[in-house]
Amino acid sequence: MLRPLITTALLVLSVVSLRAQIEYATWVFGVNAAVRFTIPGGGIDSIPTVIDGPQIDVREGSMVYSYPCDKALSVHAMGETANDAQGNVVVNGTVLSGGASSSQGGIFVRDLQKPYSLYLYITPDMTDISATQSPYYTRNKLERRGDGLWEMVERDVVLESRPGSERISATHDAAGTGYWVLTQYTDTASATIEFVAYHHTPTGIDATPVRSRISGVPIPHQAGMLKFSADGTKLAMTNVSDLVVAVYDFNTSTGVVSGRRSITLDKPRRIANMSVCYGLSFSLSGSITYVSMRATATDGTPTRSYVFRFATPTSPGNVTITPEIVCYTPLHNTYPSALQLAPNGRIYFTNNRTLGEITDPETPIGSTVPVVLDKVSFKTGNRALLGLPTCMESTYLRPTPTLVCDVPQGTVTAPSGCVGTCFTITHAVLNAPDIWLWQFPGGLPSTWSGPTPPPVCYNTAGRYPVILTATNEAGTSEIRDTADIMINPGVDAGADIMACLGGPVTLRAQAGGSVEWTDLSTNTVLQREQPVVRCDVPTMFRTVT
Questions:
Q1: How far apart are CA 475 and CA 406, in angstroms?
Q2: Average pLDDT of the chain?
Q3: Residue 447 falls within a domain, yes or no?
């Protein structure tokens, strides 16, 4: 009888996985099942933590996103509905184009032009009944409003008016400043698979997508997975109607898919039959490919959900491979378990009330892979069904992006002084403004653009506002102070005083304010406004106000 291949391992995580960013580090899936891979401060934990709160009911793929400034889950979705982290339905975020039983469901990607703005790509649900029964890929746009609620500001934008598939994936471009979102179509008449890549950059989405047509290949079922390797150079696709996994090269500079490898999976010795090649994941390095299938053992035990693996082929061509058995679990659905690489470098699979874990996916081929079938358990009523969230795995090789998370804030310091004086304006402003507009009513100059204005001169007494309008990518704020400009009060020390040496003298002055006397022979400031002094030597005194 076959036994589950279960090994408990103590694993030292690679530096690469520890640098992973948090954008796809909280997962929501199945029936109210949710885990996070983050630790306080934004790092990635080696063990996922079950969390309560997010509400969802989705059979297959879901979508999640944690905005870097939030440092936690921001939004999640299934094909028909989008929710925020508090469980509120996103404004205008219901009856979307997808469904609850689309293999991958879609993917969230950050809008690179605007803070707190996201794109949600949705795949069609081609194998079940959705509210809209749309066969098309759509793109939607969400923005966070001033009241903190997320709103769907654009929705149901059809990418192409032809039936798509339930597959979608995304990866960073070669520059690392943008990314590609990849969809997949089939042309049955010409036996052609077509990939369409949408390039997001800091200046927007390229107007013309990149098309790659692969001809003379078996037409895949519309259900299945599409995954990039974490470095974006490889692309794999499963097909639930065939035991063939396709692996391609992907050019992260051009968005072109090429170099097809067709891997036919042969039954291992202990397997009587295999079907429904569904779940898919690369190891973090991309050197090993993992798939899930339904399979029945030769000992007559019930059909189960199996995870297999093989070395990722490096050269184009057709090859037949006998994959290694990694583990198996009870079959909880018609399809086998989904697979998903996590930010900690481990691969997870659904197992009803639990998540299973492939602890070290990089284990060399031929060696036993450490697996924990019940790594985390969900509370009663919550469970994994079939699918897991669709993530951009290239984020796992990059640190969390540093974003401007708020409008400029801080202070400016205006002067107090006399008419005819020029003053330096100082400031302490945070959040990296890229536009500085100064106004100095009553002063010269009256306006200035830039972080450091020149000295400002005032020729008339009064109270004048100093206004800084500072703008960054998060918005604009106005910061103020007031300059108090006074008339030079003047001071009259009176006529010179003639006194005998050693005699007392009372110093008096007429001024519009308080006065200060200084003995110039010793450069000593006298403490009273009408000090009495002894003149033992000829002395001069100075008064200021």
A1: 8
A2: 89
A3: yes
End position of a domain, from candidates 397, 430, 453: 397
| Cβ atoms of 293 and 306 closer than 8 Å | yes
- pLDDT band with cut points at 50, 70 and 90 for residue 238: very high
* Cβ contacts of 185-191, under 8 Å, gap ≥ 24: 185/160, 186/219, 186/220, 186/222, 187/213, 188/219, 190/215, 191/215, 191/216, 191/217, 191/218, 191/219
Of 486, 503, 526, the last residue of a domain is 486
User: Residue 17: enclosing H or E segment and its boundaries?
Assistant: helix 15-18
Shared-domain flag, residues 459 and 532: no
- With the CA atoms of 99, 105, 111 and 116 taken in that order, what torsion angle do they form, in degrees rounded to the nearest 10? 70
C-alpha separations of 259 from 157, 183, 184, 246, 256 in Å: 31, 17, 16, 10, 10
- Rg of the chain taking only CA atoms, in angstroms: 35
Q: Are strands 462-472 and 447-449 parallel, antiparallel or unpaired?
A: unpaired
Q: How far is CA 296 from CA 2, 245, 273, in A?
A: 10, 20, 6
pLDDT tens digit sequence for 393-413: 999 998 878 788 788 999 999
Answer yes or no: do 472 and 374 share one domain. no
pLDDT in tens, 172-224: 999 999 999 999 999 888 889 999 999 999 999 999 999 999 998 888 889 99
Q: Cite the DSSP H helix spans in 151-284.
A: none
Dihedral sign from CA coordinates of 171, 173, 178, 183: negative
pLDDT per residue as tens digits for the range 98-131: 999 999 999 999 999 988 999 999 999 987 777 8
1, part of any domain:
no
Indicate whether 429 pLDDT > 80.
Answer: yes
| Structural domains counted in the chain | 3
Q: Which domain holds residue 479?
A: 409-486
| 257 domain residue, yes or no | yes
